[in-house]
Amino acid sequence: MNPPSGAGSPLVSIIVRSMGRPLLAEAVESILRQDYAPIEVVVVDATGGKHPPLPEPWTARGVRLVDLGRPLPRSQAANAGLDAARGAMLGFLDDDDTFDSNHVSLLMRHYNPMKPLQVMYAGARVIDRDGSVVRLLHHPYNPIMLMVNMYIQTGAALFSRGFLALGCRFDESLDLAEDWDFWIQLSQYAPFIRGEGVTVNYRAALGTSGMGVGGNLDESSSA
Q1: SS3 call for 119
Q2: How far is CA 161 from CA 38, 105, 121, 200, in A?
Q3: Which of 48, 87, 93, 193 is 20 to 30 A from residue 112's alpha carbon, by CA?
Q4: Are the CB atoms for 35 and 105 separated by under 8 Å?
Q5: Which of 13, 11, 29, 18 is nearest to 65 (CA)?
Q6: C-alpha span between 209 and 221 (Å, rounded)
């Protein structure tokens, strides 16, 4: 049985790969509003030293900026965040997406301190440039389907630190679908648990992954 949020609860680290865009504020604030504690926020500077300083109210709450002094592609930025994070459970949020306030607590209901390898994921709303929800990503877990269809959004999952000891990392040769490849790696070691709610706002048209919608859709890379 998982411990309640608060004293004695496992630390959850959320990694944000950032290009210093204005939307970063909404992403980080949505993490700081979580109704689960303790949480740490690790912002990875992917700009190569050109990232704006973090606001004092964030740093006062322990938000950290990781700067390796060089521009970082998405996979390298993800690995830098994994190296810097201290949590027992880890997750990501892209700097143009947001969480509902109960995202972490909903997933941590399924946390089992007796299991060293765990993955829990929630659903995501796919939102277009007009702010309209165009579809939901909230499919039942099926490891075979995961091999052919990316149905777990980048920010939707939390996973155990134990996977890192097994060598699970982001493939730095990939420019697209690096998170999909990472989920497939984790699926080789443990089944995933689907949380009951839809708690991630995936603003798919605003990013640059090529895996979204509108101007962020690369037809050659979408499943």
Answers
A1: strand
A2: 16, 18, 15, 22
A3: 93
A4: yes
A5: 18
A6: 10
